[in-house]
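Sanity check. The docking grid for IPE depends on where the pocket ends up, so I'm generating a full predicted complex first rather than guessing from homology. Inputs follow.
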Amino acid sequence: MLEKLLRKKTLEMDSSISDRLTKVKNGDIPSHVAIIMDGNGRWAKQRSLPRFAGHHEGMKTVRKITRIANDIGISVLTLYAFSTENWKRPKMEIDFLMKLPGEFLTTYLPELIEQNVKVEMIGNTDGLPVHTKEAISRAMHETAQNDGLILNFAMNYGSRLEIVETVKEIARLAIANEIAIEDIDDALIDAHLMTAHLPEPDLLIRTSGEVRLSNFMLWQLAYSEFSFTEVLWPDFDEACMLNAIEEYQMRNRRFGNVEGDKGS
Ligand code: IPE
Ligand code: IPE
Ligand code: MG
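Predicted complex below; grid placement will be based on this.
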């Protein structure tokens, strides 16, 4: 039933979107797309609404973008939802943001399961309220067997904290003589990051016109393509997502090599 409804929704998709989707699918599809979802507060302000109204609207964008990411054939979609620096915000706003995963996952979990989406999370769970932790772990548990798109929420995530924790763990291994200093290389560091099981992002998108990383995946983004847009996150839609993927498909990724040489 739900599947039928979803298919109908896809068919109802604006024909220009579905044409673009078909073309995009014939091109090089980024395996991992990471998004810094920014601009919810400004979206609300433009409408004289409280900031939380922007966060609530942003949740609908998460649903939309998850669906199109799945349609495109992206393997991993990482969404930066709350940073380790966002604790500086007013308590009321933080409380609201901490309730969003629960609301999102309760509302959309059946749909995510239907779409074969697997929910995951990176970030420091210890710092999250119990109800937030429970909502996320329930969704992770209920989608654990799914092998479609990985929907990875970065929640209470900070790249520097992640790197500090990685350095500590590697130092412990060295002190315990489980590794030699010479064993420390890119691969070992990768293996101790929270993203150890994921490919590096091929494409990073940031909405709202800010051109910075705000402590997001500093290590993992070393060779990613960046796409910045003025569009505020609640206004980011399927067409915007396709714009970013089309932009990505025009890029020439060299990884330090010369143009045209795929390397050996
Ligand atoms: C992004 O929107 C959501 C989070 C960072 C949690 P903002 O709340 O940062 O919106 P702006 O940047 O103030 O417009
Ligand atoms: C980055 O957005 C964090 C998230 C999207 C979760 P911010 O709005 O917190 O970033 P700054 O403060 O403008 O750098
Ligand atoms: Mg912001």
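Relevant for the grid: The chain has a mean pLDDT of 95.
Also worth noting: The two ends are 49 Å apart (CA to CA).
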